C-alpha cells in the first residue's frame, strides 16, 4: 500500500499514529542536523521531519539526496509541530519519518512548481503535466469537473437525457470550418467533425426524446484568435413542446444554481433586454451590466451649434464616468489615444467635466455655452465630480467604439469584479444579417432558427427586418450561451435555405435528412448551447478559457506538448488514397 | 404553453381537470360516431376521446383527418374510462377533447412506430429518428443515460475528477488504425483521433491529478466486424499511488453498484481467476460463469487405447452437459456439424452418454471398455442423464473450439440469463504475445503495461514468459473492462519499446513526450477502461451494442441516415493541400 492517508488530511487528531504517505518533494530545508521536507499531492502538503537525534544516520543521508519533485513514500509517526502553520489544514502536525522509499527521481523541472511559477506560457504548455501539478491549474480542472457534475445532475433531475451524438458526421455548408476525416473504408470520402450537434439534437426532438442535453466536444478549423480553441466543449440542450419562455426558465434555473453553488448568492430573476435595447444602451449585444455607464444619446442637444463633427455625425452618444471629473489632461489624453488605436478606430473624443466646484468644463466650450452644457449634463444625469465622454459618427460604428471604451473603463476602474455575477438574457436578435462581401444574407444564429411569428411576413418583403426567436445568455459581458426556437415546418425551413442562398440541390445534399425528418411529425422545439469552457472560466472569475482546458492548443492549433499535428507515413496516406501537394 | 401535463402522468386523481396535452398520434380508432386516439410522447400514452354527443361536429371532422404520427395539441377534461387498461399508468382515464390543434402533419412513416416494428434494420437506421420514437430504442437510450450518471456520481464521490483530454492528438504506432485529420493551419500535417486517452491519462497522473476518469469517445479506423463501431465510448480511469488491488476494489465497487441499481441484487465479492486458469477451465479469457460446464482434461485417461485421434492429440478435453443424455442422434449430429463449421474448425467430436438407465454409451465404444468409460465419467463428475462431449487436437485450438461449443450450448439450454449477472476478474495476463506474421512480440494489453515484478527477469531471457500486472473485468462472458498497472520507470519503458521492435528514434518520435514526462517524477499508477457501449448493453441483458447508440454506423462505417462519409468539395481539399487518387 502506497499510503494510509493523503497529504491533506492529517491533523492533531491523528497524533502519535503511524502513517504512510506518498507524494512529491515540494521543498527541502536542510539545516544539516535537521531536514524538513514538504510532501505534496493533490490533496495538500504535509511536513516531514528528519533529525540527528531521532532519525538514523542512513535515513538522514537518504533524505539529503532527495531533490525537488522526487516521488517518495514515507512511514512515520504524526507529531505536533513546534512552529505551526495556520495557513494549511495539516499545519499543526509533522511526520517524524522512520522509513523513506524513493519511488522515482526527478530531473530539475524546467520551472518551479509553485502557485506563482517562473515558467513562461510556452514552457508551461510544453510541460503541461508539470504545470498541472501547480495548485492554480489543478484547482481550475477540479472546478471544471465540479461544474460539469452540477450541470449534469441539475439537468438529469429535470428529466433531460444525455445522448451521445456522433463525432464522425457529414460536412456542412459552413464546410470551410469543418475538420474533415478521410475514411479508409470509403476511399475518397470524408467524415467531418461536428461544429455542434445541432441537426442531431433536432433529430432527437423529432425522435421524441423531449429533453436532451450533452456536454460535448465540438470542432472548428478556423484561424484561431487569442483564446479560441480548435476543439471546445458545449453544454448542448434541446427541448420539445416548448416555447422560448420554457427554455429561458430552465436554463436560468441551471445558471442560477451554478452561481449559487459558487458564491452562495441568489441571483434573483435574470433581467432581460432585447437586442435593439442592448445595442442602444450598451452598444453591444453582450453588455456587462455589473456596472452602469449606460449610453446617453445626444443628437437633439448637440446638433446645430456649428460644431461640424457633431453636426455631420449620424449619432452622438456618450457615457458618464462617475467620480472621474478630476482626471488630469494626461489621463484624458490617454483615453483619447486609446479610442484612436486602430483596433478601436475612433477619430476623437469629446469630454465634459462636471467639476466638484460646480463648474462645467469641456473640450467643446467654443461651441457650447454654459446652458447647453448644463442641459447635456442633465441628460447624462451627471452630478458634481463626474466625467462625461462623448463620441460621434456612424451609429453602428460609434456604438461599438464607445462600448469598447466603456469596457476598458470598467476594467480600469475595477468595476468588473470577478466574484460578482450579473446574468442577462438578450432576446429578439435579428434573424439575418446582410453580408456585404458575399452580397447575401447570413443566418445570425443558424439556418434552423425560427423567425418571430409576427415577422414572418418580412421574409417576403424585407428579410433584414425579421427578428428571430433567438436569445443569448450573457454573464459579466460574455456570451455564455445562445439558442433559439427552431423551425419545425418543412416549408418555412425551405424558405430559409432559399433566403440564405442555397439552391434546392445544395439544401437537399446538405440537409436532406433533416428536411426529410420534418415530413414525419416534427414537434415544436427549441434549445440552447453553452460554451462550457468560457462558462467555467467566467464562473471562476476568470476570462482565459485556455486555463480551464487540461491540454489546450496554441494559437496555431498546435499541441506543443505532444507535437501535433505532425506528418504521417506515406503508407498511411496511401491507404487513404490521399497525397499532399503544394497549394495550387 | 404546449402542455400542462405529459402523456404519462394523468390518473383518476386528476378527474375533471382541464388539461392540455401534446404529442404524436399513435393510433386512431374511428367508429364514426366516436373516435379514440392514443396520444404518445416520451412519457407515455393518454387516450383521447371525441364523440357525436359531447364534441362539436367540426371537432369530430378535424379528428377524422388525423393520421398516424401527426403532432397535435389538445385541451380537454380528464374523465373516467368505461373500459380501463390496467397495463398503462394512465389506463383509468381519458381526455374528452374540447380543442384540437394540428402542430404538424406526418407522411405515413416507413415502418410502424410500435414496440414490435415491421421495419428492417436498414430502414430503421435510415430513419433512425423514427426508430428512436419506439419504446425499445428510447428506453435503451434512457438506460444508457442513467448508467452514465450513476458512474459519474459514483466516481466523483470517490474523489475522481473527470478531465477532458484532447480529441485532436498525434498519430501513434498502431497508426494504421488511427483516423487522421488534416490541419488547414499546418498544411501537410495531420492530427489523429484517439484510440484511447491512454497517454493523456498517464500524463494526468504525472500531473498529480491522482484520480481521473472520463466518459469519452474513442475512434478506430479498422474493418468493422459485426457490432464494432468506428467511434465508441469508454469509461476511462486512472489512479496514482495504487497497486492492482486498489484498482480492482474501486471498480468492483462501481460495477456492483450498477448491478445493484438495475437488479436490486448484491453481487458479493467478485471471483478472480488468472488468465492461465481461465484458459484451462473455460478455454477462454472471458468465461461466462453464469453456468458450469467446466473443461475436464482427459489425456491421462484416454491415451494409449489405440484411438489414434486421441493418441495424436496434444490435448483431449471435454465438457459435461448436464441432463442431456437423452439427446437424439440427430441432436448430437447437429452439434458435431456445428463445431465442424469453418468458423469453429473442429475435425470432429466424441460423445459419451451416462444414460438414465445407468448404461454408459459412447461414439468410441470400439476403443474404450466399460471400465475406461466409467473412469472418464467419474472424472467429469457426471451423473445419470448427463451427456459428455469431447474434443481433441492442438491445445490452444481445441480449447477455443470447445469454448465456442460451451457458449453455444449455454445459449441453447437457456443458461445465459439476461437478468443474471456473474462478474469475474481475470488477472495475470501474459505481457507479450508473439505474432507469427510480423515475427515479433506485440503488447497483449498495451506498451505501457507493467510486467509483474517477479517476471521482469524474463524480459532478458524469454520475454514470452513474462506475465503482466494486467486485469480484465468480465461480465457474463464479455470483457467489459480491462486495465493494468503501468510502467512508471523510464528505463523499463524504453526496454518495453525495444522488445516491441521500436527503434529508439521511433519510440522518441511517437512517445517522446511521455518518456520525457517520466523524467520528472512519475508516480506509480494504474488504471482501467470500460467499453461503455458494451457495458450498458450487457447490464441491460442484451449484447447488441449498436442498439445502445443513438446514431450508430453500419458495418461499412457509414451513417446511412445522414449519408456520411461523403465527397467534399475540391476547394476544401485544396485548402488542405490534399488530393484524392486511385490507390497506387
Task: Describe the structure using short key phrases.
23 strands; alpha+beta; globular; homodimer; OB fold (Dihydrolipoamide Acetyltransferase, E2P); 17 helices; Gyrase A, domain 2
Describe the structure.
- The structure is a homodimer of 584-residue chains.
- By secondary structure, chain A is of the alpha+beta class.
- Among the domains of chain A are: 12-104, OB fold (Dihydrolipoamide Acetyltransferase, E2P) (Beta Barrel), CATH 2.40.50.140; 291-412, Gyrase A, domain 2.
- Helices cover 29% and strands 24% of the residues of chain A.
- Chain A is built from 17 helices and 23 strands.
- Chain A has helices spanning 57-64, 121-126, 128-131, 135-157, 198-206, 244-263, 275-282, 299-302, 308-312, 329-340, 370-380, 395-412, 458-461, 490-499, 504-517, 532-539, 570-575, and strands spanning 18-30, 34-41, 44-51, 71-80, 93-104, 161-162, 180-182, 190-192, 211-219, 231-240, 272-274, 296-297, 315-321, 350-354, 360-362, 386-393, 423-427, 432-435, 440-443, 470-475, 478-485, 525-531, 578-580.
- In chain A, strands 6-9-10-22-21-20-17-11 form an eight-stranded mixed sheet, with helices on both faces. In chain A, strands 1-2-3-5-4 form a five-stranded mixed beta barrel.
- In chain A, strand 18 (432-435) and strand 19 (440-443) form a beta hairpin.
- The longest helix of chain A has 23 residues, at 135-157.
- The radius of gyration of chain A is 30 Å and the shape is globular.
- The model of chain A has no long low-confidence stretch (mean pLDDT 94).
- At the A-B interface, strand 1, helix 3, helix 4, strand 6 and strand 7 of A face strand 1, helix 3, helix 4, strand 6 and strand 7 of B.
- Strand 23 of chain A pairs antiparallel with strand 23 (578-580) of chain B, so a sheet runs across the interface.
